[in-house]
Specification:
Shape: globular
Keywords: ATP-binding, Helicase, Hydrolase, Nucleotide-binding
Largest sheet: 7 strands, mixed
Protein name: DNA helicase
Bound molecules: adenosine-5'-triphosphate
Oligomer: single chain
Strand order of the largest sheet: 1-7-6-2-3-5-4
GO molecular function: 3'-5' DNA helicase activity; ATP binding; DNA binding; hydrolase activity
Number of helices: 32
Structural class: alpha/beta
Length: 829
C-alpha cells in the first residue's frame, strides 16, 4: 500500500498511518503491507499530491461559487415583499430552501473530496460528500456524491471483484489542503493477496480507528466497509433489522443509511420526515453531528420519551417500575382504567332542578352506559351518547312532573291557561332537554359518571389511587402495583410516554390543554395583527389622494388579521421535522431505532403507530440488552406488527474494540448466550487489559490514581469511568476533585477528558480508555447484569482496565493483575 506524504513535508504522520496498516489483529498482516494485489506505489508523492491538490482546489472553488449563488438567491428572496398570498408562500419556501442549501454547503467543508476511482477504460471519478457538476456546458460530474450508484465501487470493489476499477485512492485533506494519499491497485494479475480482502482502504480505515476520540461521533463516509455498505443501501420499504456485536458500526451505519435514503428518496422522505430514535439524551448528543456532516439536516432525533408532544419525560423511576409499564398487558390495564371511570351510582343521584327533584337511579345510568359502550366509540367520543341517554331519561321525569302539575307556571311558555292539563309536544321535550344540559347539577353528575379525560388525567389518577390500580390491574401483584403508585404531579417518566400515547388512542380526541394553549396563542397573534392593521389603516387618509395611500388601503384589504396572524405565527416557519415533532399522529416516512434491544413492548407499539408504512431500520444487539423491559429476540418484537416480513442483516467486524479487549468481552458473551459469537476485531493494539484490586476503603483514592495515569497514557484522548449505578455520585465526586474538568451527572459533557458514568449512560458511547469499577457490583445490580458488564467492557477503542475491591466475576479472572501504586502505570506500559 502506498502512502504519500504532504508536499510541504509538515505532516509526517501520513507515513505512520501507512505503518499502522500492519497492525491488523490476526497477525497475518504484520508487515507494512507491500501487497501487490491491494496496493502499489505510483511514486512521485509530491507530484501526485500536487496534482490532486489542483483538482481539490478546483472543487473548493466550485463549492465557494455554489455558496455565493445560494447566498445571493436567499438575500433576493428576503428582500422581496408584498405580492399575492401564493407569491408570499413561494418566497417563504425559497428562503427555507436557500438557507438549507447554505447550511449543507457549509457542512461539507471538511473532507469535501475524499476518494478517487480509476477505471480500466481510463475513466476517473472523484468521490465526495456531495455531488458537484461542471456548470460550464455539459454538466459533467466533477465530484460524485458518495451515495450515487456510480460511487459504489469505492466501497465494494476488491481485487477479486474489481468492478472495472484499477485503482482506489483515498485522498486525505486537512482544511483545504491535500495531506496524503493512500492507493490500492485492484489488479487480478498481481501475485500476492492480502489476508484482509474484506477490508477496503486499510490505511485510511486504521487511521480513522486509531484516531483519538472527541466525545462526538464522526461520520465514516470515507471508509465504509462492504458489509456496511449493503446495509446502508438496502431498500427503503419494510423492516430491516441490523444485528451486530459491540463496535460493528451499527449506529454509524444507521445514520449513513438515513443520509442514503434521503438522497435516493428525497421527494418521499423530506415531507414525511425520518425519525431517529436513540436510548437517551447523552447518546443523541453524541451522534448529533453525524448527519449534519453528511449535509443532511431536517431529520428528527429523539428518545421514545420525547414522542408525546407537550411533555418532557425526564422524571426518574426504579427500573422495575419502568419494566412493568413497558409490558404489553398495560394496554388491558389502561382499557380497564377507562372502563372504571365510566361509573354509575351505587343506588341513585338526586338532582334539584329549579324546585323539582329528579332522581337518576342506578338502572338509568347503567342503561345509558351500556348504550354508549355499545356504539364501540372511544371513551371521549362516546360521551355525547351517554349524555343523550341520561338527559332523555331526566327529561321524561321532568315532563311527567310538569304534566301532572296543573299549577305549573307555564314553564314552557305556551299559551294554555293555568289549570289546563299540560300537553307536551316533541318541541317542548327538546326544550326541556336543552335546559337540562345547561343545569350545573346535571353537568356535574355527567362529568362524574363519564368524565372527558386527557391521557394525563387518566394516568395520574390511576397512579394516585391504590383502589383504581387494584381494579384496573388485578393481574399485577401487590408489590408491582405498589411500584406504580405515586402522587399526582412531579412530571413524567420515559416509560409513561408509551402509556400516555396508548391512552390517547383509547380515549379519543380531546387534546383540551394543548388546543386551549394553541387557541390562546392564535388569539394573541390575531390581536397583534389587528393592532398592526389598525396602525396601517389609521395612517391612511380616506381621500386616497395619492397613489401611496391607496396602496396602503390595498394592503389592508389583502391582509386580513387572521392571515397576518398566521404569518407572524411560528407555524408559518416550521420545518416538516418541527411539525412532525409537534404532532402525535404524524406518520413518519422512515424510522430508525438505535439500541433497539432496549425498547419495551409498549414503546414498540408507539413507534409502530408513528410508522404505518413499517419502513424501518432497527439496529441493536440482543446480547447488550440492559433494560428490564428490553428484548432478547427480534422476532418476538417485530412479528406482532410485520409478521415474517422483516429481513435481518448481520455486521460481523468490530471496528472499535481491539482484539485484546474483545477477548475479555467474548468470555462474558458465552455466559449470556453460548450461541452468540463475538464480532471479529479489525485491529489489535498490543495493550493487554489489566485489573487492579484495592481495599474497599481505598477505592476512591485508587480510582483517582488510575484515572490520572490513564490521562497521561491517552494524551488528549477521552477516558470513560464506568461505575455501578449506586456508586456514581461518590466516585464521581472523588474524580472531579482530582480532575476538575471531569464530567459526571445525568447528562455529562462527553467532550470532557474524563467522564464518570453508569452503564445505562455509557450505552452506545466509546472512549479511548475505559476503567470499569467494581464489575461484580455491576453484575449484581440487575437481572441483566451480564449484558451490562459486557457493554461496559466493550466501550474502549484503545485501553481497558478494571478496578475492584470484590473478587472478579467469572470470565474476568484472567485479566493481567497490576498494583495500584502512585509510581507505577497500572497498564504497565
Ligand atoms: N467503516 C468504518 N470506518 C471507520 N470507522 C468505523 C467504521 N465502522 C465503524 N467505525 C467506528 O467504530 C466505532 C463503533 O461504531 P458504532 O458506535 O456505530 O458501533 P455500534 O455497533 O453501534 O456499537 P455498540 O453496539 O457497541 O454501541 C465508531 O467509532 C465508528 O466511527
Amino acid at each position: 500500500m502506498s502512502s504519500f506524504g504532504v508536499s510541504d513535508g509538515q505532516l509526517a504522520e501520513t507515513v505512520s498511518d501507512s505503518d499502522r496498516a500492519g497492525t491488523v489483529s490476526d497477525g497475518t498482516l504484520t508487515e507494512a503491507v507491500p501487497d501487490g494485489s491491494r496496493a502499489a506505489s505510483n511514486g512521485g508523492s509530491t507530484d501526485e499530491c500536487g496534482r490532486e491538490q489542483e483538482h481539490v482546489s478546483m472543487l473548493y472553488g466550485r463549492l465557494d461559487d455554489l455558496r455565493e449563488q445560494a447566498s445571493r438567491r436567499r438575500d433576493a428572496s428576503l428582500r422581496a415583499t408584498g405580492g399575492t398570498p401564493q407569491a408570499r408562500a413561494e418566497r417563504e419556501t425559497a428562503i427555507t430552501l436557500y438557507t438549507d442549501q447554505l447550511a449543507q454547503l457549509s457542512a461539507v467543508e471538511n473532507g469535501l473530496c475524499f476518494g478517487r476511482l480509476d477505471f480500466s477504460g481510463g475513466e476517473r471519478h472523484y468521490i465526495g460528500r456531495i455531488g458537484i457538476f461542471d456548470d460550464s456546458g455539459d454538466y459533467e460530474p466533477l465530484l460524485l456524491d458518495w451515495r450515487a450508484p456510480a460511487a459504489r465501487p469505492f466501497y465494494l470493489a476488491t481485487a477479486a471483484s474489481p468492478e472495472g476499477v484499477t485503482r482506489r485512492r483515498h485522498i486525505r485533506t486537512r482544511y483545504r489542503k491535500v495531506v496524503g494519499l493512500d492507493d490500492e491497485v485492484l489488479d487480478l494479475t498481481a501475485t500476492r493477496r492480502s489476508a484482509h480482502e474484506d477490508v477496503t482502504g486499510e490505511a485510511a480505515l486504521l487511521a480513522a480507528l486509531d484516531a483519538g476520540r472527541t466525545g462526538r461521533m464522526r461520520d465514516i463516509v470515507e471508509t465504509i466497509q462492504a458489509e456496511q455498505d449493503r446495509v446502508i443501501r438496502d431498500d427503503l420499504g419494510g423492516a430491516l433489522v441490523v444485528q451486530g456485536g459491540p463496535g460493528t458500526g451499527k449506529t454509524a451505519v444507521a445514520l449513513h443509511r438515513v443520509a442514503y435514503l434521503l438522497y435516493t428518496y428525497r421527494q418521499q422522505l423530506s415531507t414525511r420526515v425520518v425519525l431517529v430514535v436513540g436510548p437517551n439524551e447523552t447518546f443523541l448528543r453524541y451522534i448529533s453531528q453525524v448527519l449534519p456532516s453528511l449535509a443532511e439536516t431536517g431529520v428528527l432525533l429523539g428518545t421514545v420519551g420525547d414522542l408525546y408532544p407537550g411533555i418532557t419525560a425526564r422524571r426518574p423511576e426504579p427500573p422495575e417500575a419502568a419494566a412493568i409499564k413497558g409490558r404489553l398487558e398495560m394496554t388491558d390495564v389502561l382499557a380497564a382504567a377507562i372502563r372504571d371511570r365510566q361509573q354509575v351510582p351505587e343506588k341513585y343521584i338526586d338532582l334539584t332542578i329549579d324546585q323539582d327533584m329528579l332522581r337518576l337511579d342506578r338502572a338509568i345510568c347503567e342503561d345509558a352506559r351500556a348504550a354508549a359502550r355499545r356504539t364501540g366509540k372511544l371513551h371521549n367520543l362516546a360521551r355525547p351518547i351517554f349524555d343523550t341517554e341520561v338527559i332523555h331519561a331526566l327529561s321524561l321525569q321532568l315532563a311527567e312532573k310538569i304534566g301532572t302539575d296543573p299549577y305549573a307556571d307555564d314553564p314552557l311558555g305556551d299559551d294554555d291557561a293555568p289549570g289546563d292539563p299540560q300537553i307536551l309536544e316533541e318541541a317542548d321535550l327538546a326544550e326541556i332537554r336543552r335546559e337540562l344540559r345547561e343545569e350545573p347539577e346535571v353537568k356535574a353528575a355527567l362529568d362524574w359518571m363519564w368524565p372527558i379525560l386527557t391521557p394525563q388525567d387518566l394516568l395520574s389518577d390511576l397512579y394516585a389511587s391504590a383502589d383504581r390500580l387494584a381494579t384496573a390491574a388485578p393481574d399485577l401483584s401487590d408489590a408491582e402495583r405498589a411500584l406504580l403508585l405515586r402522587e399526582p404531579g412531579g412530571g413524567w417518566t420515559p416509560a409513561d410516554v408509551p402509556l400516555l400515547d396508548e391512552a390517547a388512542e383509547l380515549l379519543g380526541a380531546h387534546d383540551k390543554p394543548v388546543d386551549a394553549l394553541a387557541e390562546k396563542r392564535r388569539r394573541e397573534r390575531i390581536a397583534y395583527a389587528e393592532g398592526a392593521l389598525e396602525i396601517m389603516s389609521g395612517s391612511a387618509s380616506y381621500e386616497f389622494e395619492d397613489e401611496a395611500e391607496s396602496e396602503i388601503l390595498a394592503a389592508t384589504d389583502l391582509l386580513e388579521a387572521e392571515r397576518l396572524a398566521e404569518r407572524h405565527g411560528e407555524e408559518a416557519r416550521l420545518t416538516p421535522a418541527e411539525r412532525a415533532a409537534a404532532d402525535r399522529t404524524w406518520a413518519f416516512g422512515h424510522i430508525v431505532v438505535d439500541e433497539a434491544q432496549e425498547l419495551s413492548p409498549m414503546a414498540w407499539r408507539l413507534l409502530m403507530r408513528r410508522c404505518p408504512s413499517r419502513s424501518m431500520t432497527v439496529v441493536g444487539d440482543v446480547a447488550q440488552t440492559g433494560d428490564l423491559a428490553g428484548t432478547s429476540s427480534w422476532a418476538q418484537v417485530l412479528e406482532p406488527y410485520v409478521d415474517h416480513r422483516w429481513r435481518l442483516e448481520e455486521l460481523t467486524v468490530n471496528y472499535r474494540t481491539p482484539a485484546e479487549i474483545m477477548a475479555v468481552g467474548g468470555g462474558l458473551l458465552a455466559a449470556i448466550d453460548p450461541a452468540l459469537r463475538p464480532p471479529r476485531s479489525v485491529r489489535s493494539t498490543g495493550v493487554e487489559p489489566w485489573a487492579a484490586r484495592v481495599e474497599p476503603e481505598h477505592l476512591a483514592e485508587g480510582l483517582v490514581d488510575v484515572v490520572l495515569r490513564e490521562v497521561a497514557e491517552v494524551d488528549d484522548g477521552r477516558i470513560g469511568v464506568i461505575v455501578a449505578a449506586g456508586q456514581e455520585e461518590e466516585l464521581g465526586a472523588a474524580v472531579t476533585k482530582a480532575v476538575p474538568e471531569a464530567a459526571v451527572g445525568e447528562q455529562p459533557d462527553l467532550s470532557s477528558r474524563v467522564v464518570v458514568l453508569t452503564v445505562r449512560q455509557a450505552k452506545g458511547l466509546e472512549f479511548d480508555s475505559v476503567v470499569v469499577v467494581e464489575p461484580a457490583r455491576i453484575l449484581a445490580e440487575s437481572p441483566r447484569g451480564l449484558s451490562d458488564l459486557y457493554v461496559a467492557l466493550t466501550r474502549a477503542t484503545q485501553r481497558l482496565g478494571v478496578l475492584h475491591t470484590e473478587p472478579l466475576p467469572v470470565g474476568l479472572e484472567g485479566l493481567r493483575p497490576v498494583a495500584v501504586e502512585k509510581s507505577a502505570s497500572p497498564a504497565g506500559v
